[in-house]
TrEMBL record:
Coiled coil: none annotated. Belongs to the YicC/YloC family. This is K+-transporting ATPase. PANTHER family: UPF0701 PROTEIN YICC. Residues 211-327 form the Endoribonuclease YicC-like C-terminal domain. The gene is kdpF. Its cofactor is a divalent metal cation. Keywords: Endonuclease, Hydrolase, Nuclease. Its EC number is 3.6.3.12. Pfam families: YicC-like_C, YicC-like_N.
Length: 327
C-alpha cells in the first residue's frame, strides 16, 4: 500500500504559480471495466426437488429441500423400517454438498400390495371365534363382532417384504433426486451470478465516475481557497499557498480508495470465475468493498462523490444479501 500511495503522490503535479486560471493536474490510473466471463458454476443453498418411483412393492416419493445455513446440516424423515439407511444417505449428501440445512423426506405407499396379499389364518380365526361365542354364552350379554376376531394377533397374516430389495430401489432413487436437487441449486446460482455481475459492473461505473470528477473537485477547492483570500484582501505567499493546497489535496484524495475498490471488484470476479463453494469468500469480499465505500464517504467534500458513495453501499448490500444464499 505504501508504494501505491507514493505513486499517487508522484502522479500529481502542482504548479508554483498562483494564477487563478492555472490548471491543477490530477492523473488517475485507468482500470479496465470487468468482463462478463459467461455462466459461472456457483450454487444456491435454497432449492427443492422431488421424485416419485413406482415398483412392484409399491410407490415411494423422495423430497429434498434446503435453506441457508452456515455449515452443512442434514435431517431425514424416514419410515421406521428404513431408518438403517440414514447413515448411507447422509454420506451421499456430504460427498456432494458443503453448506445448507438439508431436509429429506421419504413417503412409501404399499397398500395395494398389502391388500392383494393378505392371508387369513383360518384355523386360528376359527378358534378365536369359538372362544368369543363361548364367552358370550357364559356372560349372556354382548354382541359378537368379527372385527374383534380380525384384530387378534396372527389372524391376519401380512407377508414380509423384501426390505433389502426395496432399500436398493430407494437408494438409487435418492441418488437421482439428489442430482436433480443439485441441478436446481445450479440454476438458482446462475441467477445470482447474473445479479452479482450486474452489481459489479455498476460498482465499477460509480468508481470511474468519482475518479473522473476528482480533477474538477480539486480545481474547485483551489479556486475556493483563493477566493477567500481575495475576500479578506490578503496576498498569500505563493509557496505557503501551494503547501496548503497540497495538504488539502492529500486530505480529500480518494485515488487509493478507488484503486483498492476496483482491485476488490476484480478479486470478486476471480472468485466467481473459479466457481464451487464461494459463499464465504464472497462474503469476506463484501466486507472489504464496504470498508472502502465508507472511507470514500468520509473523505467526500462534494455532493456527487457523496451520492456515489451511497450508491456503492446500496450495491454492496444488494450483493451481500444474495451472497447469503450461495453455498
Amino acid at each position: 500500500m505504501k508504494n501505491s500511495s507514493l505513486s499517487n503522490k508522484k502522479s500529481r503535479h502542482f504548479s508554483t504559480q498562483t494564477d487563478r486560471n492555472e490548471i491543477w493536474q490530477y492523473n488517475s490510473t485507468q482500470i479496465l471495466a470487468p468482463k462478463n466471463e459467461g455462466i459461472i458454476m456457483i450454487y444456491s443453498m435454497t432449492a427443492f426437488a422431488s421424485l416419485e418411483i413406482k415398483k412392484d412393492w409399491g410407490n415411494a416419493v423422495w423430497e429434498i429441500r434446503s435453506v441457508n445455513q452456515r455449515y452443512l446440516e442434514t435431517f431425514f424423515r424416514l419410515p421406521e423400517q428404513f431408518r438403517s439407511l440414514e447413515n448411507t444417505l447422509r454420506e451421499t449428501l456430504r460427498q456432494k454438498l458443503t453448506r445448507g440445512k438439508i431436509e429429506c423426506t421419504l413417503r412409501i405407499d404399499n397398500k395395494k400390495q398389502t391388500a392383494a396379499e393378505l392371508h387369513i389364518n383360518q384355523e386360528l380365526a376359527t378358534q378365536v371365534l369359538q372362544s368369543l361365542q363361548w364367552l358370550k354364552q357364559q356372560a349372556g350379554e354382548g354382541e359378537l363382532n368379527l372385527t374383534d376376531v380380525l384384530r387378534y394377533p396372527g389372524v391376519v397374516e401380512v407377508p414380509e417384504q423384501d426390505v433389502d430389495l426395496i432399500s436398493q430401489d430407494l437408494l438409487a432413487a435418492f441418488e437421482q433426486v439428489v442430482s436433480e436437487f443439485i441441478a436446481m441449486r445450479q440454476r438458482e446460482g446462475e441467477k445470482i451470478h447474473t445479479l452479482l455481475t450486474q452489481r459489479l459492473e455498476a460498482i465499477h461505473e460509480e468508481q470511474q465516475k468519482v475518479r473522473s470528477k476528482m480533477p474538477e473537485i480539486l480545481q474547485w477547492q483551489r479556486e475556493r481557497m483563493l477566493q477567500r483570500f481575495e475576500e479578506v484582501q490578503l496576498q498569500p505567499d505563493p509557496q505557503r499557498l501551494e503547501q496548503e493546497l497540497i495538504m488539502l489535496a492529500q486530505r480529500i484524495d480518494v485515488a487509493e480508495e478507488l484503486d483498492r475498490l476496483q482491485l476488490h471488484v476484480k478479486e470478486t470476479q476471480n472468485i466467481l470465475r473459479k466457481g464451487g463453494a464461494v459463499g464465504r469468500k464472497l462474503d469476506f469480499m463484501m466486507q472489504e468493498l464496504n470498508r472502502e465505500s465508507n472511507t470514500l464517504a468520509s473523505k467526500s467534500i462534494n455532493v456527487d462523490v457523496t451520492n456515489s458513495a451511497i450508491e456503492l453501499k446500496v450495491l454492496i448490500e444488494q450483493m451481500r444479501e444474495q451472497i447469503q444464499n450461495l453455498e
